[in-house]
């Protein structure tokens, strides 16, 4: 059986150290993968220098030494088989859409950005993997969250503490309402029982 889920990390820069720190966080939370897949260099022909820098980072000595020590095999997909990466490209596209839709022109500090990205991850991992039923008595559909934590993802915070400063209030309102609007506008397939009821006890 195969399934899919999204894991997002925020890094401070594009250095090998920052990448490895994010990779270690991933392993600590999700477990060590046996295989990793990435686009190949020839897929980046005509692409931005940013993408080429990403490939250079992945192929750096520091990163490759780390994955070798951890017995992780890193695969680069063939240049003529870009469709192989279609699954993760779809996840990247959804993440970008949610970020743009949610942030708009807002300027976030690192803590706010990490929080928002994590909530977007929860949104993406709340999308049903099985067809939705019209029967209210039917079981909840399976989501990636069931495979990650054994249950649907928890509902998002909505309450703004009383009498915060005007600046804090504006930031809190952004952080509390934007994930909700993300679910309502960008993920209509998410069952309401997942988005409105806290499943964490």
From TrEMBL:
GO MF, any single term: nucleic acid binding
Region (Disordered): 175-201
Gene Ontology biological-process annotations: DNA integration
Integrase catalytic domain location: 1-152
Domain of life: Eukaryota
Listed InterPro entries: Integrase_cat-core, RNaseH-like_sf, RNaseH_sf
Protein name in the entry: Integrase catalytic domain-containing protein
Biological source species: Trichonephila clavipes
Gene symbol of the encoding locus: AVEN_206494_1
């Amino acid at each position: 059986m195969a399934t899919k889920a999204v894991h997002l990390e925020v890094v401070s820069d594009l250095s090998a150290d920052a990448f490895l720190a994010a990779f270690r966080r991933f392993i600590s939370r999700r477990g060590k993968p046996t295989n990793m897949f990435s686009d190949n260099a020839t897929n980046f022909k005509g692409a931005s220098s940013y993408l080429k820098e990403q490939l250079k980072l992945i192929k750096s000595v520091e990163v490759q030494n780390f994955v070798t020590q951890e017995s992780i095999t890193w695969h680069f997909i063939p240049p003529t088989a870009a469709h192989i990466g279609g699954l993760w490209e779809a996840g990247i596209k959804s993440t970008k859409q949610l970020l743009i839709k949610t942030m708009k022109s807002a300027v976030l500090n690192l803590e706010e950005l990490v929080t928002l990205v994590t909530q977007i991850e929860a949104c993406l991992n709340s999308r049903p993997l099985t067809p939705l039923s019209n029967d209210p008595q039917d079981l909840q559909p399976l989501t990636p969250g069931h495979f990650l934590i054994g249950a649907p993802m928890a509902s998002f915070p909505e309450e703004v503490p009383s009498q915060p400063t005007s600046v804090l209030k504006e930031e809190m309102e952004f952080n509390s309402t934007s994930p909700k609007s993300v679910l309502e506008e960008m993920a209509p397939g998410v069952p309401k029982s997942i988005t409105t009821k806290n499943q964490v006890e």
